[in-house]
């Protein structure tokens, strides 16, 4: 209660123009601030995304269909950007972070911080969704936690390929899906092209994820994100599904781990090579209107 009163007094004094000191508990270390924000926004995104899958699977179609899963992840991404966008950039995806490092928009020393934070947020989200839907999951599968089959439930947490999909085709699927993600993210943040309007970035990125889901999601669940997939997969391995989560799909687990970073660099590289590098000088573009270039860059790919 004392801390709450101090916080209220601080806010009031700031509104009145009175100089006030920040509480000592405020974090000043950039690595810690970025890590906490990235963990939290990833957690938010994953809770909504995995929760939407759990609701569809355990509800057996009564509480949503495939489209609601796409909406769950798309809106979850949008909410995640609102949570951490101004602090960490809200990558929520190791492929995004790796691509930003590759193109100099994020320092390499920050990559381990982002990856660890995303893994932590995803793992905790998987645990949370399992706890919330524990009884529903066990009622649905009769207490038999399986990875494949009619009553399989491991797919609530991690992605698995369709029965017809080979590892090569799945690898290409993940490379292409992530390439489209990063290509479009580069476009949305390109201030010399047609970027997302200032303040609309979360919605724009959420719609992009929704678009990928409804167009490229049926082959393997469009993980397009290493940390989104491997952390919940590890959780299911220790929560009762066992080692089958790594054996299923002819050892599918490594595909969403390796393919997305490759696809991310390819997609961003294609946009940069075909569009971004060929922008005319500022003085020649739009009559030199600087106003078009002062809107903040897309949070998901902001420089740090």
TrEMBL record:
In terms of superkingdom, the source organism counts as Eukaryota
Give the subcellular location: Membrane
Listed transmembrane segments = 31-57, 63-83, 113-133, 164-188, 200-218, 251-271
Q: Which GO terms describe its cellular component?
A: basolateral plasma membrane
Topology versus the membrane:
Multi-pass membrane protein
Signal sequence span is: none
- Which catalysed reactions does the entry list for this protein? H2O(in) = H2O(out); glycerol(in) = glycerol(out)
Q: Keywords in UniProt for this one?
A: Membrane, Transmembrane, Transmembrane helix, Transport
Instruction: Please tell me whether the keyword Lipid biosynthesis is annotated for this protein.
Output: no
Please state the protein's primary subcellular location.
Answer: membrane
- Tell me which family the UniProt entry assigns to this protein: Belongs to the MIP/aquaporin (TC 1.A.8) family.
Query: Could you identify this protein by its name?
Result: Aquaporin 7
- Source organism (scientific name): Seriola dumerili
